[in-house]
Amino acid sequence: MAVNLVKGQKVDLTKGNPGLNKLIVGLGWDTNRFDGSEFDLDAMAFMLDGSKKAQTNNNFIYFNHKKDDAGAVVLTGDNRTGAGEGDDEQLIIDLNKVPAGIESIAVCINIYEAAKRKQNFGMVDNAYVRVVNEATGEELSKYDLTEDFSAETAVMAAEIYRHEGEWKFKAIGEGLATLEKLVEKVGL
Q1: What CATH code is assigned to 3-185?
Q2: Per 3-state DSSP, what percentage of the chain is helix, strand, and coil (rounded to 5)?
Q3: Where are the domains of the chain?
Q4: What is the mean pLDDT of each run of 10 residues along the chain (188 residues)?
Q5: What is the pTM of this model?
Q6: HEC sequence for 69-134
Q7: Which of 92, 125, 154, 161 would be a feasible disulfide site paired with 182, CB 3.0-4.6 Å?
Q8: Which residues contact 4 (CB under 8 A, 6 or more apart)?
């Protein structure tokens, strides 16, 4: 049974699920259509070391760099409309392939060309991030981003991190003004 989290809460992933190797991290959203503009939201991941920094560009997974060199984190595609039911974009994380120096994976969403299109997350509804056991299809955890990010165009939604040899999921929900501010935060 899935655990629904609120901002700041954490849940164990591997301790209670022995043998869990691969995760599907699904991200979804709907956009307000009141302004008539096209929205293009992008899922992305930053592979971070113990100081919460990405050491190389290889540690940044997004629509133009869909997997890291180890194949630990893979973005499955780039949905440019967010239309339809279910996950709009997914990351596949193979926990066994995550390099030893990586302590966490920040799961983020950015609005593409937000400044040019005059868009922000206040125009986005029903945003969520969820973790699914790839082998069984069982949803393990879900976090609905209910905050009003009316000035932000990038969100650090969640974190998957190592703790004492186990993997956990934390609901972050931190909005940032721009993608550049998000990239600056993680050290690239």
Answers
A1: 2.60.60.30
A2: 10, 45, 45
A3: 3-185
A4: 87 93 93 70 95 93 95 86 78 97 96 90 90 96 88 95 95 94 87
A5: 0.93
A6: CCCCEEECCCCCCCCCCCCCEEEEEEHHHCCCCCCEEEEEEEECCHHHHCCCHHHEEEEEEEEEEC
A7: 154
A8: 141, 142, 143, 144
